[in-house]
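Recall that a protein's primary structure is simply its ordered list of amino acids. Everything else, from secondary elements to tertiary packing, is in principle encoded there. The following example makes that idea concrete.
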Amino acid sequence: FTDYVSGAAFTTDSRRLVSVHMNGDVNIWDVPSLKLVKTYQTLLIGNSLLSIFPDNRRILLMSGGIPQRFLVVDTQTGAITKSIGKHFDSFMEFQTKYTQFPDMGDIQFASYALSPDGKQLATATANDEVGIWQIADNTYQQLQPAGEQYGSFAIRSMAFTKDGKTLVFSNTRDKKIHVWDVASKSEKASVDAVAEAIGLSPDGKMLVWTNRVQDQPGTISVAPLDALDQAKVLLTLAKDYKFGPRMTSVRFMPDGKQVVVSGLFASNEAPNQIYVLDVPS
């Protein structure tokens, strides 16, 4: 009764699941009964990503198209209460500067992360600029400038620690995972990895990531966030499986003792799989 899912997230109490679909529908599901509670139609045709605010009422949707924006939606009314993104002084500014690369890459996004308190939004542009938006007033601070290779969409996964003080993101262009202090806007650490996806444990102390090396099997690794050089490999993929850009996901379970891996590409008629991996103590 609706289109393909492009994003989904649970509320903090796990009693509701919110899904956004390629046709623009936003569905709210009651998890215990597996019943559809509400459906809202939006203008977000195509691929859109979704996060839920800590109040379990508002959701954040990343729109498609140019320019891309982030919309705050009240799930009880279906109303868009805020739009986050670059402000243009005039249509002429947009038309003359942002309708072709490289500047068009400044208003397209490769990934984002909502802070745990719902007050900040970290974004990575198609040109690999990383910055922080204050959701209350739509102000923006740059953390990392754009890269030299425009339109690479290389920063494909981001996450805040539980306290919101640290931002972690992967960059497939420079082949590193970066750990930044948000307040000082400075890099604290990095580790070599071509990571399509990363995930932080609920307490923010452990990091899991994918890693692909040319002509070698992909791996899933985990390490303490403050000791990334102590990484342990949880899984080495079989030859018929590969990581999918913007598809593969690695997430900790709520107790932090296991990691779930999904969204792998399977070849040679191999069955697709979801892995649940134990995290070494």
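The mean pLDDT is 92. The two ends are 44 Å apart (CA to CA).
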